[in-house]
Amino acid sequence: MGAATVLGVGSVLLRAPSSVAAGSPSPRAVARAAAGGLREAAGGSPARRFGSGSERTWVEVRGLDGPQGPEVADRVLSAVRTLPGVEAADVHRPWSRIVVSAGPDGPSEETLCRVVDDNDTATATKISDHRPIDLPGDDVVLVARAVGAATVGLGVAPAGRFLRLPRLPTALASGVVSVDYQPRLRGWVEKAVGPGATDLLFATATVYTLTLSPDSLALDAALRGALVAETWSARRAWQRVEPALHAAVDGPPASLPPRVAPTGLVERYAERAGLAGLVGDVALGAVTRNPASIGIATLVAAPKATRSARELFAATLGRGLADRHDVLPLHPRRCAAWTGSMRW
Question: CB within 8 A of 284, min separation 6: which ones?
Answer without folding.
Answer: 293, 294, 297
